[in-house]
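Model it.
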Amino acid sequence: MEPDQSPRIRVDALMDTSTVHFLPSMNRRNFLAAGVATSAAHAAPRIASGSEFANAGAELNGKRIRGKAEHVISIWLGGGMGQIDTFDPKKKGDPKKKLAGSYYDSIETAVPDVRVCEHLPKLAGLMDRVTAVRSVNHEVIDEHAAATNRMHTGRPISGTVTYPSLGSMISHERRTKDVNVPPYVLIGYPNVTRGPGFLGTRDSYLYLTDTSQGPAGLTRPDGITPQSQARREKLLAVLKRNADPTTDQRLLNYDAAIEQSVRLSSPEFMSVFDLTREPADLRNRYGGEFGQRCLLSRRLVERGTRFIEVSHNLNFLNGIGWDVHNEGIQNQHQLIQELDTAVATLIADLESKRMLDKTLIVITTEFGRPPEFDSGGGRGHQGSAFSCVLAGGGLSHCGAWGATDEIAKKIVANPVSVPDFFATICAAVGIDYHKNLYDGDRPVPITDMGRPIRELFA
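Modeled.
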């Protein structure tokens, strides 16, 4: 399990000055692609990478792909969502007989020949606004923390470089138009994998875990009136004017964090966390605590926040989360149903407000699950083929992209590496996915040379 999901972690934004948190079945198209993959397999003994095969010709005449989305809502399913039991269903298996296959039946969707798990009925009706990327892959399978890092930074853990998360990269490249709005908000527990890495604290996140109130670090203590706050700010300004100037970036970042935290603690911004301002019927449609986090993400998008990560099943309310080894799989359907309710409502809500094309919804997890059942009837880990999901964002959705074999174990068409998946997200929000960031003087390719899924921008 990844360590950031422990309920014992103190919830307090902007208090740790060392990190300064302020502001991770085929359709027809895939059938034809599978034929190309089969032919290519005779010519090469390995599966081509996404940049070499699935996205060949992703740039025509050197022209970069550039989408028009402005915001990302990233939904994180900690533990490892099983693709075969959600967005890439296959023939049904039998855990008692150790017969590999899906745990549930599948249902039709709004896209012909694209099926999903029976516990995703609401999303099934919206799959024409969605693309389940069924061919994501990496080599990390046995360690949750390393796989979580891979799916947040797009790279392996390095002993010399702390890479920035996707949220920090987008925050770095797409600053908010309003300085009184945080570019990056984490609705979940803080963790270095979500952080800014070498970009520095300016591109870190504001975080909270409880949607019933705003971030604890931005809440003024009782007795601190606006008048007394103003006096404190005036005194601080005097001290800063009389202090010797500094070029120490750490001190400058700290000052910037204080200034931003003061701005964000104003009643104007803090009102975004008051979900009672939303109609009761809408709040009920979103569902429980996870649904309320999704609703808050929509309110943050309205205010101008660029990137929001929403953690699902934050405190492992079902006892095990998506890491369904052994008997843990028995209640997996509850997680799938909760995901279905909240995400389907989020898509419909954004669409009703004409914000869906400007907001890319991303569902990721650290790896998938194999089709075989373990001794207790659950599933192990699988990084070689799993599903991540894109919705909205102005993309040309097709229900599903990429294809796996008859038991969702091997990729047979359009493999998508993690860098390719990150490049697709960056392209969707208008970021040059081939540019370099800099760790000091060292150039670091922003997506580790990933190339976007060109067909989604047709």
